[in-house]
């Protein structure tokens, strides 16, 4: 059942909010021990919320856009009275004392928050294997990683433990697990969704976004969480698009669209993935799209630029975890990847190295952003693989560069601040493959419409 249809059934009381919640609670009880998607559940609070929604519907009262829908939250986003650990021993006892802006908006629209999802420690990873609380398993490709760092949120939706989930995307942390788990994962335009209440990984890249099983679910959540926030310095003041209308009126979304295909995105990807993405492009042509060949000569510059900036911003963000106010001192208890980024950020931040590395990375970022904007200037969207390789088996030993290589196609949108999403394109021997769609800043609704048209075609 499509999520927009389910939402209407709940509002019409053909399905009660409590019935919807109970189904997910049963699935969590049966499957979370295996998949380790949720780190914390609060059934009592969720039941109270569902009962209140049902009562208001029975009384003919108006309810919110998310009424009765069950939502999972990544564990680096503040939710009052839940443990906000960022999957780290550093914060294992930290209890949220307030709601992030996105959480306020979800609650205002009657979304039912069921719990906090697993992730790579402090979002520093692409596999959800670095969590202090144990790895998360991919329910669609058993024995393999679900991707990261928002792997728990992806798995919670893919394993039917909630209707929707939100994660954070710094260099692909929503789109990567969406691709590996066969879901919709959306990174909005930078500044479209408030970051207030999100624990920083790299503040100039971080963006909160939704996971859903279909485009309508992503559209509905985007309508709720997008919008200006005067308390957050990167927030954009803009008119929120009617994302759900882009889904409902998607029939001709692709007809006449100029679709950019960048040669280098395919050159760095596995052949099996390329074959599936090319089939999706053929489908777009059949639907009336004009395919435009593009070239991006700076793809080799993107990963080092992203990670150099990431290291410095992450090092700065972690200085507050000194053991005085927020639990344990981070360097004393964190995992290997987090410690690596702290040490690298500390090194690069030193005065004698800042000009050699960090300032050059900032210059490279400006170049990449300028070139990406040129690429998308004459097309409606760019399409290609979300991730260049299939997810590895859990426990496989990878050196850092091999792990970082998962991000080569996703960091581009974060460097440029443009919207990007992953939508299911097919599978290789049962392992999902995602199609990444990128567009101009604030053209997020165009991506939603395109995903919806492809979904209808399937």
From TrEMBL:
Active-site residues, as the UniProt record annotates them: 74 (charge relay system), 149 (charge relay system), 173 (acyl-ester intermediate)
Stored Gene3D superfamilies: Amidase signature (AS) domain (3.90.1300.10)
GO molecular function: ATP binding; glutaminyl-tRNA synthase (glutamine-hydrolyzing) activity
Organism domain of life: Archaea
Keywords, sorted A to Z: ATP-binding, Ligase, Nucleotide-binding, Protein biosynthesis
One record GO biological process: translation
Stretches assigned to the Amidase domain: 19-447
Substrates-to-products reaction catalysed: L-glutamyl-tRNA(Gln) + L-glutamine + ATP + H2O = L-glutaminyl-tRNA(Gln) + L-glutamate + ADP + phosphate + H(+)
EC number assigned by the record: 6.3.5.7
InterPro entries, per database record: Amidase, Amidase_CS, Amidase_dom, AS_sf, GatA
Any single GO CC term annotated in Swiss-Prot or TrEMBL for this entry: glutamyl-tRNA(Gln) amidotransferase complex
Functional summary from the UniProt entry: Allows the formation of correctly charged Gln-tRNA(Gln) through the transamidation of misacylated Glu-tRNA(Gln) in organisms which lack glutaminyl-tRNA synthetase. The reaction takes place in the presence of glutamine and ATP through an activated gamma-phospho-Glu-tRNA(Gln).
HAMAP family listed in its UniProt record: GatA
Subunit structure: Heterotrimer of A, B and C subunits.
Family to which this protein belongs: Belongs to the amidase family. GatA subfamily.
PANTHER family: GLUTAMYL-TRNA(GLN) AMIDOTRANSFERASE SUBUNIT A, MITOCHONDRIAL (PTHR11895:SF7), TRANSAMIDASE (PTHR11895)
NCBIfam families: gatA
Record protein name field: Glutamyl-tRNA(Gln) amidotransferase subunit A
